[in-house]
Write a structure and sequence with these properties.
globular, oxidoreductase activity, acting on the CH-OH group of donors, NAD or NADP as acceptor, about 300 residues, AKR, TIM Barrel, alpha/beta, two-stranded antiparallel ribbon
């Protein structure tokens, strides 16, 4: 589609700027249909993770898509991201986990694989073993990338300290840092720092886990901007993220909502709109997902 945007990563890789988020989509038959519906709408980027427990369903859906000539798509047309579970941190565990993800996804390579969390499951927040383990995980991802099993490697939920620390041990710096990002968690310093390191910023929970569109948190300025652009609240929030340079990963379960979210790429917010949305975080802040800021 002519309006579809891409974000350029290093090494000539380009990732579709709007991807399909699949967290909380665990029903296998529904997940398979969702992937097919999303691809029909125009999505070419699927984001999953080991902890989502839906890699096998996504793999089944993609296998069927590639085998169905009516889609007219091959493996290289779809960008697939998965992530390392916090329980799989460490060199050996990470290698095993990636190979398990490849098997479930039924793919010969994964476009991008992220360390999902800077910490390791069941360790105290300030345990120095977190750094030891994520260093080992990163070495494993670098190795698997060199073998062609992963095209791009990255991190998720990393804060500025975690990114800076990587300069000590990374031979290849992350291509992406995926974090919670929406107007109630406008982490401008983290976004700019990530981008200054040549790392693309990827946003999850752009709609505040639905709270910014379902009436739980209401901000008249969002309604006003949506009305002005004849857009949905979700489209405005996604567009705001994109115009801050983020890759966005909206979730949806209906074809109509999938299409509406995808068409956020047709909208351009003015500088005035952007500033007004940026200002929401000066009134109220809220993190809806897990908090990585205390992980040593």
């Amino acid at each position: 589609m002519s309006f579809a945007k891409v974000t350029n990563l290093r090494d000539g890789l380009a990732i579709p700027t709007v991807g399909l988020g699949t967290w909380q989509q665990r029903d296998k038959s529904l997940m398979k249909q969702l992937v097919k519906d999303a691809i029909k709408v125009g999505y070419r980027h699927i984001d999953t993770a080991t902890v989502y427990t839906n890699e096998d369903a996504i793999g089944d859906a993609l296998s069927e898509v590639f085998a169905d000539s009516s889609f007219g798509l091959s493996r290289s047309d779809i960008w697939v991201t998965s992530k390392l579970s916090p329980s799989d941190q460490g060199y050996e565990s990470a290698i095993t986990a990636v190979k398990r993800s490849l098997e479930k996804l039924k793919l010969s390579y994964i476009d991008m694989y992220l360390i999902h969390w800077p910490g390791t499951s069941r360790l105290p927040l300030q345990d120095p073993q977190h750094k030891v383990n994520r260093t080992g995980s990163w070495k494993a991802l670098e190795e698997l990338k060199s073998q062609g099993l992963i095209r791009a490697i990255g991190v998720s939920n990393y804060q500025i300290s975690h990114l800076n620390e990587m300069k000590e041990y990374a031979t290849v710096m992350p291509y992406v840092n995926q974090c919670e990002f929406h107007p109630l968690l406008f982490t401008k310093e983290l976004v700019l720092h990530t981008q200054s390191m040549g790392i693309a910023f990827e946003a999850y929970s752009s709609l505040g886990e639905g709270n910014l569109v379902n009436g739980n948190y209401k901000f008249p300025v969002l309604d006003q901007i949506a009305s002005k652009h004849n857009a949905s609240l979700a489209q405005v929030l996604l567009c705001w993220g994109i115009q801050h340079g983020a890759i966005v990963l909206p979730k949806a379960s209906s074809v109509g909502r999938l299409a509406q979210n995808y068409e956020c790429q047709k909208i351009t917010l003015s500088d005035e709109d952007m500033s007004a949305i940026d200002n929401i975080s000066s009134q109220q802040t809220k993190r809806f997902c897990w908090d990585p800021t205390e992980i040593l």
